[in-house]
């Protein structure tokens, strides 16, 4: 049974401005494991897509729960990659839920959709 659906879209330019303006933005959005992956990317565009995708995914999850970011922390939501390359989401306090996640990027946007089932 579906218990929540959320979607989020973010402009890459907005994320780029946030990173430039606030050197702690990356620390606020990404977990330690996510930062480890982020640091492996050489190209700035790929780093930007990565952060924007994670930001959108975490916002989409918050919308799917109906709580929003504020009641949930970006640090409680972690997105890693399965062996086949698909993203997977782990969330503190939601270990019993099945979470489906899709992230995509274009030249200007990152979009993520989350479906939660029980």
What can you see in these coordinates?
This is Holo-[acyl-carrier-protein] synthase. It is found in: Cytoplasm. The N and C termini lie close together (6 Å). The model has no long low-confidence stretch (mean pLDDT 95). The protein is built from four helices and five strands; from the N terminus they run E-H-H-H-H-E-E-E-E. By secondary structure, it is of the alpha+beta class. The longest helix has 22 residues, at 44-65. A hairpin with a 5-residue loop joins strand 2 (77-81) and strand 3.
Output the keywords:
alpha+beta; 3-stranded antiparallel beta sheet; 118 residues; globular; Ribosomal Protein L22, Chain A; two-stranded antiparallel ribbon; 4 helices
Briefly characterize the structure:
With 118 residues, the protein is α+β, with helices and mostly antiparallel strands. The chain contains 4 helices and 5 strands. It has a single domain, classed as Alpha-Beta Complex (Ribosomal Protein L22, Chain A).
Strand and helix map with partners:
Elements: E1 2-11, H1 12-21, H2 25-29, H3 32-40, H4 44-65, E2 77-81, E3 87-91, E4 98-105, E5 109-117
Antiparallel strand pairs: 1-5, 2-3, 4-5
Keywords: Cytoplasm, Fatty acid biosynthesis, Fatty acid metabolism, Lipid biosynthesis, Lipid metabolism, Magnesium, Metal-binding, Transferase
Family: Belongs to the P-Pant transferase superfamily. AcpS family.
Organism: Pseudogracilibacillus auburnensis
The gross shape turns out to be globular
Q: For this entry, what is the oligomeric state of its chains?
A: single chain
What is the C-alpha radius of gyration, as a whole number of Å? 14 Å
What is the CATH class name? Alpha Beta
Give the name of the CATH superfamily.
4'-phosphopantetheinyl transferase domain
**Beta-strand segment tally:** 5
Poorly predicted parts: none
Strand order of the biggest β-sheet? 1-5-4
Fraction of helical residues: 25-40%
Please summarize the sheet with the most strands.
3 strands, antiparallel
What's the helix count?
4
Name the CATH architecture. Answer: Alpha-Beta Complex
Structural class, by secondary structure, is: alpha+beta
Number of domains: 1
Mean pLDDT: 95
Helix and strand run? EHHHHEEEE
Could you give the distance between the termini?
6 Å
In the CATH hierarchy, the third-tier topology is known as: Ribosomal Protein L22, Chain A
Measured by DSSP, the beta-strand proportion falls in: 25-35%
Enzyme class: transferase
Protein name: Holo-[acyl-carrier-protein] synthase
Subcellular location: Cytoplasm
InterPro entries: 4-PPantetheinyl_Trfase_dom, 4-PPantetheinyl_Trfase_dom_sf, ACPS, Ppantetheine-prot_Trfase_dom
């Amino acid at each position: 049974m579906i218990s929540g659906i959320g979607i989020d879209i973010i402009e890459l330019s907005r994320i780029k401005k946030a990173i430039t303006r606030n050197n702690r933005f990356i620390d606020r959005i990404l977990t330690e494991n996510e930062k480890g992956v982020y640091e492996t990317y050489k190209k700035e565009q790929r780093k930007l897509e990565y952060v924007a995708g994670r930001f959108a995914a975490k916002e989409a999850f918050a919308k799917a729960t109906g709580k929003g970011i504020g009641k949930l922390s970006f640090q409680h939501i972690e997105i890693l990659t399965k062996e086949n390359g698909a993203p997977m989401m782990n969330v503190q306090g939601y270990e019993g839920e099945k979470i489906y996640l899709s992230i995509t990027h274009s030249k200007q946007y990152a979009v993520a959709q989350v479906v939660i089932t029980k």
